[in-house]
């Protein structure tokens, strides 16, 4: 494989020694750098001109992309965008800069020398200690729902502190971070809350007790999808279920409305079997 093709195959940035180990001589690398086909973000690394700037920044600072930045890049449900990049590095490394946060904690899983993006396990462990508990729970459940990690795998790791608490609370069933938020905020009620339960041929977002269904409207609740949801809501109510439907805006910006609706229904016993 041609040198630039080899670098492109490794996300556009790779250690020089890895390229040399694959038969690309130091002289050929130097020629490519002199011609502008490659750059050297730092000693020991080569990159294509259009390489991912986040990975280039990680290599430049002897770090790996981790924590919430890694979660964002994996496409996980993030309650709020991070204002800075989050990296992880060795305690004796010199990672520094005004535009990013560096985590120095010992990783749960070893990182290879040429690694620029952290493992899911290491990223989740850092998220547990870095972000507010509720935000961390949403991201953990998103990783479980996307099958990027399994609960038994997490349970075998030497988790401590808040990470251990997240392990006991998180569930793999939430279809969105909004479901995770609602369930987490109502655990104090002491009422059983199930996610993604199939009732009358369709899944419902949350089931409180025996018959209180809470549905969360996202961006797809329009057109044919809305018609189908309304039909299912009607079927549920005809079968004795109580249905409360709330929106993203209510959960994120007007939580008191959601709180009052659900707490009021619980107080009236609308979650109990008839």
Map the helices and strands.
Layout (H helix, E strand, L loop, with lengths): L2 H7 L3 E3 H6 L4 H9 L10 E3 L5 H8 L2 E3 L1 H7 L11 E5 L10 E4 L16 H11 L2 H13 L5 H5 L5 H9 L7 H9 L7 E7 L2 E7 L3 E6 L5 H16 L3 E6 H6 L1 H13 L7
Parallel strand pairs: 4-5, 8-9
Antiparallel strand pairs: 1-2, 3-4, 6-7, 7-8
Helix pairs in contact: 5-6, 6-7, 6-9, 7-10
Offer a concise description of the structure.
The chain is α/β, with parallel strands linked by helices and 274 residues long. The protein has helices at residues 3-9, 16-21, 26-34, 53-60, 67-73, 120-130, 133-145, 151-155, 161-169, 177-185, 223-238, 248-253, 255-267; strands spanning 13-15, 45-47, 63-65, 85-89, 100-103, 193-199, 202-208, 212-217, 242-247. InterPro entries: AbiEi_N, DUF559, Restrct_endonuc-II-like.
What do these coordinates show?
- With about 270 residues, the chain is an alpha/beta fold.
- The chain has three domains: about 5-50; about 65-170, no CATH class; about 175-265, Endonuclease, Chain A, CATH 3.40.960.10.
- The protein has helices at about 5-10, 15-20, 25-35, 55-60, 65-75, 120-130, 135-145, 150-155, 160-170, 175-185, 225-240, 250-255, 255-265, and strands at about 15, 45, 65, 85-90, 100-105, 195-200, 200-210, 210-215, 240-245.
- The protein has a four-stranded mixed beta sheet, sandwiched between helices.
- A hairpin with a 2-residue loop joins strand 6 and strand 7 (about 200-210).
- The longest helix is centred in the last third of the chain and has 16 residues, at about 225-240.
- It starts with a helix and ends in a 7-residue tail after the last helix.
- The model has no long low-confidence stretch (mean pLDDT about 90).
- Pfam families: AbiEi_4, DUF559.
- InterPro entries: AbiEi_N (IPR025159), DUF559 (IPR007569), Restrct_endonuc-II-like (IPR011335).
- This is Type IV toxin-antitoxin system AbiEi family antitoxin domain-containing protein.
């Amino acid at each position: 494989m041609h040198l630039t093709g080899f670098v492109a195959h490794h996300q556009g940035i790779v250690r020089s020694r890895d390229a040399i180990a694959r038969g690309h001589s130091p002289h050929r690398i130097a020629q490519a750098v002199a011609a502008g086909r490659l750059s050297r973000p730092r000693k020991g690394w080569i990159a294509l001109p259009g390489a991912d700037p986040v990975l280039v920044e990680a290599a430049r600072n002897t770090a790996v992309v981790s924590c919430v930045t890694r979660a964002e890049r994996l496409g996980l449900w993030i309650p709020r965008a991070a204002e800075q990049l989050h990296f992880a590095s060795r305690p004796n490394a010199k990672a520094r800069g005004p535009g990013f946060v560096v985590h120095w904690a010992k990783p749960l899983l070893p990182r290879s020398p040429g690694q620029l993006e952290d493992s899911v396990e290491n990223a989740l462990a850092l998220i547990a200690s870095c972000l507010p508990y509720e935000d961390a729970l949403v991201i953990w459940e998103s990783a479980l729902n996307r099958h990027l990690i399994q609960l038994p795998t997490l349970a075998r790791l030497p988790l401590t502190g808040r990470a251990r608490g997240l392990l006991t609370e998180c569930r793999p069933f939430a279809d969105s971070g909004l479901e995770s938020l609602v369930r987490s905020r109502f655990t104090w009620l002491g009422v059983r809350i199930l996610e993604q339960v199939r009732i009358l041929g369709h899944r419902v977002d949350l089931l409180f007790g025996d018959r209180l269904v809470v549905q969360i409207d996202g961006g797809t609740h329009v057109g044919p999808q809305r018609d189908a949801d309304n039909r299912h809501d009607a079927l549920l109510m005809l079968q004795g279920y109580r249905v409360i439907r709330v929106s993203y805006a209510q959960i994120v910006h007007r939580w008191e409305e959601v709180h009052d609706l659900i707490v009021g229904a619980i107080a009236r016993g609308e979650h109990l079997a008839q």
